[in-house]
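cache lookup: miss for this entity combination. No prior model stored, computing from scratch. Input as submitted by user K.M.:
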Amino acid sequence: MLLSSRRHPCETALRNHAADMYRFAYWLCRERQKALDLVQDASLRAWKSWENLRDQSAVKPWLLSILRNEFARSFSQHEPPIADIDLETLDVIGDNCPSSGLEVREALRSMPDSLRETLLLQVLGGFSCSEIATMLGTTEGAVMTRLTRARQTMRRLVDGSTNLKEMTP
Amino acid sequence: MNCLNYRRLLLLDPSRNDLELDEHVKVCRACAHFRERTLDLEQRITDAIMVPVPDELLSDRFFVKPSSARKTPVLLALAASLILAIGIVIGVGFSPTRSDPSALAGIDFVVDEEVNAILHAKSADPGELHRVAQSLKVRLPEALGEMRYIGTCPYRGGIAHHVVLTLPSGKVTLLLYPGDQSDADASAASRGLTAVVRPATGGTVTVVSRSKANVARTVEILQRI
């Protein structure tokens, strides 16, 4: 009888989701080599924690959550201090917005991290708002707001379309 | 379905299949054009996100079980569990508990969205704010400090009216949310902020600030009229 060289389920899961893990990592840190390191760190942690995974149908959100946590740990991610905004000193971006007409990739890079991350989880991961809320430790309402805001931001950066123009028929 | 709701839902998820959305776009040319542009941009976003995957990831060695991923000795695991349990017991006594989701949403908005909303705001009509306050039957806290109506913003799946109040002791954010179904006060404390959601007629008002005292003062003024 031949012995079958079956892969461990963890290795199978990692290989199945390698491309999405890399792309998520890439857009988190926006550097190829750092993204590779991040995927490798995340896979080590996945191996160590594999026995803790109760629902194997949820392996993809589990892996991306591990990767996100590794990113936060490795790149000293911290919550920015909340500024009490002096409204008078803020420049309001008007029709002469210099950031309109950006390439899509540049627009994605320049988007606020929280918006980009949420958009990635929907577009790349295919997760529902509820799943994304669980992964990010926030509310479904906040996720919905971020998704809408992310697409509005992309429209403005790429096409130069303004928020109010598009939303008002 | 009106055009505002249609576009809001489409921006939330352009790939959604929804008969009501399809019916609206059949009769509204402006929204049909909006949909076309949105789907086009969505495809471009998807293409941009799909960066090429390095060959290293395809290597046989990349994902194999590392030799260091060995089982932790039992005694060490027990000791770690005990330390963790003690840490949790101590932590529960001191860490603030996250509470109501609707109040937390207000905090998340201030931390994650507010700066962008202010930066990209166009001049909003203060008359609109007063009409919304009138319909919610709440008194705006203009007496407390300088009040600025930023405009409308996507919030919790709907549209809220975003106001920033500048008090001598700090900033307070108000989110007037017509259509929100809630008949009880809710509160939360997280990320250095305090939020209270106060029911109003046909909606709610969320008050968020770093200062609990400012939240309390603002809520006191927001009495129903």
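stored under new cache key. Chain A touches chain B through 68 residues (CB under 8 Å).
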